[in-house]
Each structure stands twice: as C-alpha cells, then as structure tokens.
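Customer ticket, subject: "Can you confirm the structure for Dephospho-CoA kinase?"

Message body: Hello, I'm evaluating your service for our small team and ran a test protein. I'd like someone to confirm that this is what the system normally returns, since I don't have a reference to compare against.
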Amino acid sequence: MVIRIGLTGGIAAGKSTVASRLRELGATIIDYDVLARQIVEPGGEALPRIVEAFGPSAVDAAGRLNRAWLAQRVFSGPDRQALERLDAIEHPLIYAKAQQADAEAASQDDTAVIVHDIPLLADVIDDVPFTFDHVVTVEAPQQVRIERMIRTRGMSGTQAKARIDSQSPQAARLAIADIVVDSDTDRASMLARVDRLYAQWSAQARHDA
Ligand SMILES: CC(C)(COP(=O)(O)OP(=O)(O)OC[C@H]1O[C@@H](n2cnc3c(N)ncnc32)[C@H](O)[C@@H]1O)[C@@H](O)C(=O)NCCC(=O)NCCS
Ligand SMILES: Nc1ncnc2c1ncn2[C@@H]1O[C@H](COP(=O)(O)OP(=O)(O)OP(=O)(O)O)[C@@H](O)[C@H]1O
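Agent reply: Thanks for trying us out. I re-ran your input and got the following:
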C-alpha cells in the first residue's frame, strides 16, 4: 500500500532539509512550490488566466510572469480579494499536477512513500485532493528561524520577522500535524529522526501491500 505524507513547516525551519533526506532514503517528493512555478511559466496553463484576471502588467515584455508586480498586488495591495483570485486560478492546476505525479509514483511502486511537500498545508488542507497517512511539520523557535534567515538568506531581522508573520501561525501547523520534527536540535539528530520515520513508513507500506 502506498503511504502518503503531507510535509509542511515554518519558514526556514528545515522543511527542505527534511525533504532532501527523505528523497535520499527513497521517498518520492512532490514539491508544490515547483508545481506552482511550472504552471506560470510561458506556455503554462495558469499564465493566460492570470493575465485575464490581473491585466497585461502581470507579464513582462518577454511574456514571463512579473512575480514582483503580482506579489505586490496579492500580498500588499489594496484589493483584498486579489490573493483569493490568484489562488482560485493556481490551486486547482497545482493539485491536478500533484495528482498526476502521485498516480505515476503509485503505479510504478505500490509500496511507495509519497511525500507531498506543501509549505502552506495548514491553509489548504481541506482543499488538497489527498488523504495523508501522516502530516509532518518541521518546527524551530522563531528566533532560531530569524537567525537562519539572516545568516543564509541575507535578510535583515525585520524582513525575516515580516516573512514569518505573513505565514499562518505555528499553532495552525501543529493543529493539523500528527508528527513534529524539531529542527532546533543538531542536524545529525534531526536527520536520525527522519531516518526512523522513513523506516516506519516504508515498513508500513510493505506490510500493508
Ligand atoms: C504571487 C507570486 C507570483 C509571488 O512570487 P514570489 O517569487 O515573489 O514569492 P514566492 O513564491 O517565493 O512566495 C513568497 C512567500 O509568500 C507566501 N505565499 C506564496 N503563495 C502564497 C499564497 N497563495 N497564499 C499565502 N501565502 C503565499 C509564502 O510564505 C512564500 O514563502 C507567487 O507566490 C505565487 O504564484 N503564489 C501562488 C502560488 C501558491 O499558492 N503556492 C502555494 C502552493 S499550494
Ligand atoms: N537541525 C538543524 N540544525 C541547524 N541548521 C539547520 C537544521 N535544519 C536546517 N538547518 C538550516 O536551516 C536553514 C533553513 O533550512 P531549509 O532551507 O531546509 O528550511 P525550509 O523550512 O525549507 O525553508 P523555506 O520554508 O524558506 O523553504 C538552512 O540553512 C539549513 O541548512
């Protein structure tokens, strides 16, 4: 039986580090950020619909999505429904691609561990067309995440705090998760925890096959 995992986490908590480890161990990772970028590429299904909804300024002269312009419109502009309109265009297309990827992985291996890597899972859990066997959130205290963003992403403390505040609160992720991976321990301990989780999931997948 295929095991499906929903993976989320606070920004800069270590979700990508956990996803990479799971990939090395043999899991199939479906990265929703990657899918979201694919659908807005020139030729992607979302791009003409975004132009229709937001106007020609949504693309640059070369026909590529003007991410900075759109981010300003949906995250900071006066139109409070703009983000909902964008989500209504993008999310069904992202889910359709995820369903394709999931079905392909499941058809290749009926004991696959399929990890849906969804940064905003707490906001969309009721809409994603999957039932997860487990939901994992990767968490670290806010101050640790701010320090990581300053150190590795060249952000100021204020910028880092603003990014954290723009996400759903940690409580929303904890409410949907049955497994919390603490990334405020050293990397080796965190990865050892991930290894143990993967071993359990993959045994469960084979046992129930
Ligand atoms: C508006 C866009 C073009 C801005 O692109 P940009 O490169 O400036 O930002 P990026 O994609 O890196 O996102 C920055 C941060 O914004 C937040 N964010 C992104 N999309 C959303 C959203 N739909 N709702 C709430 N917050 C969001 C995230 O915390 C993210 O870390 C882009 O964010 C987008 O297409 N968003 C919608 C896609 C989406 O819903 N993705 C989530 C997958 S389920
Ligand atoms: N247990 C750990 N100990 C120390 N540093 C860690 C640990 N886990 C992750 N990191 C570091 O923290 C930073 C953020 O990790 P990562 O990129 O995996 O986060 P993320 O949650 O995927 O971030 P985002 O949500 O912004 O994509 C990276 O520099 C990573 O190397």
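A couple of notes from the result: The domain at 1-27+112-209 is CATH 3.40.50.300 (Rossmann fold). The CA atoms of residues 129 and 182 lie 27 Å apart. Feel free to reply with more questions.
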